[in-house]
């Protein structure tokens, strides 16, 4: 095995309240995470000259996540993104969910998976986190068990999700990391983005998906070729105005490398491969409403871009056969891989 394939995984701090901090490290990447909401705290990745710097946003103090609406680095669920009207029907029954975003339900409710302390086990090349969400937690039926694996191999960070429930329920898990490949030297306007997607899911004024899909051709949402995030973000386009920037699910095509983010100055490139059908791109349009970040001050809007692979948001209200339904006895499985590279200039 090559030298850089050896990954060391260690507990670096264990607090009395159960919050534990971990480091996964090899020659390519150094990643810190915690079992509180499985937050990714930092990812040190090399630039073109081999300099390792932190390319994700994070909290100054992790417990601030309880007061915060940015979900920086967290695992979110049971259902990522918005459920319109915070209610849904399943098997002829109406379920009322926690209302925590205008009239809607966002990212699993008041106390979503981002705030749970997960059990953990150190495994080869990574960490296996698990938690149980009791029946009717935040309004969802069924006791659900979730397993999240973070694996570091070479320059890949892989996240594997598995969940099952003792009753039919909903499940849509994502990681909510915001990336800034310049390591915070600049906002994300000059980051190049490329997405293999022909369509986006349209949103309304509350950022809820409407069930309409827009062809990206000739719009600021066409990222088939690399475009700077800032190039068209202020264009006169209704979908951009409704969300104050990009905050949309791109319906991705293909099985791998559906998305790349590239910073020309540092040479860093992040490629994302996912088994999931949609990737929400959120350009941090309301980041300045959040808690203190790593530099001890709140982040500003557009300091990072969140890349959130998931099922179609509000799938339960939109899809004829909603992928978000997890039937009793079935297993929800998804994998997303984040590949960190540099260009050769
Ligand atoms: C998601 C949503 C955004 C916003 C963030 C959290 O990305 O799509 O609208 O709510 O989460 O701040």
From TrEMBL:
Protein keywords: Carbohydrate metabolism, Isomerase
Domain of life: Bacteria
Pathway(s) this gene product operates in, as recorded in its UniProt entry: Carbohydrate metabolism; hexose metabolism
Enzyme class: isomerase
Molecular-function GO terms, alphabetical: isomerase activity
Protein name per its UniProtKB record: Aldose 1-epimerase
Catalytic activity: alpha-D-glucose = beta-D-glucose
Range of residues in the leader sequence: none
